[in-house]
Amino acid sequence: MIKRIEHLGIAVDNLEKGNEVFAKILNIQPYKEEAVEREGVTTSFFKVGESQVELLEASKEESPIAKFIAKKGGGMHHVAFYTDDIKAEMARLKSEGFELLSDEPKPGADGKLICFLHPKYTAGVLVELCQDA
Predict the structure, then answer these.
(1) Which SS3 state, helix, strand or coil, does residue 69 take?
(2) Each residue of 50-102: pLDDT tens digit?
(3) The CATH number of the domain where 9 resides is what?
(4) Count of CB atoms within 10 A of residue 103's CB?
(5) Which DSSP letter does residue 100 get?
(6) For residue range 28-49, what is the model confidence (pLDDT) as tens digits?
(7) What CDD domains does the annotation carry (predicted)?
(8) pLDDT at residue number 94
């Protein structure tokens, strides 16, 4: 079962500048920066109530975030929903006709297991499922 919005993912071409902008908007500092080498990104997180804002900067030219920014520029990248049982949600959504971008959950930033749904099945929005690892 989906419990809440876990985070909003925002692609930025410069993490330092993105952090400055969102620190002013939210009137807080990011609580964490983390490199996710496998995905070719560096992230920072701002806590907003029970949810987070995640900024994503490409650390490799061939990373999905680098491709996204090259195609669309910075901005809203994905919405992530929290679940207590990511495998059950993956199975449920697959049975509903959604295409998953991986067959198994994989490690993501901020101590999460993650799986993405293909945006052609989700009204053009990249959707991420998250569970605490």
Answers:
(1) helix
(2) 999 999 999 999 999 999 999 999 999 999 999 999 999 999 999 999 999 99
(3) 3.10.180.10
(4) 9
(5) B
(6) 999 999 999 989 999 999 999 9
(7) MMCE (cd07249)
(8) 98
Q: How many domains does the chain have?
A: 1
Residue 127 domain boundaries: 2-132
Query: Is residue 87 within 8 Å of residue 21, measured between CB atoms?
Result: no
pTM metric for this prediction:
0.93
The separation between the first and the last C-alpha atoms of the chain, rounded to the nearest angstrom, is: 17
Spell 44-67 as b/e; 16+ CB within 10 A means b: bbbeeeeebbbbbbbbeeebbbbe
Closest listed residue to residue 79, CA positions, set 129, 130, 6, 8: 8
> How many residues comprise the chain?
133
Q: How far apart are CA 46 and CA 31, in angstroms?
A: 6
Task: Give Dmax over CA atoms of the chain in angstroms.
Answer: 43
User: Three-state DSSP class for 56?
Assistant: strand
Residue that is written with structure tokens 């930025």 in the block: 12
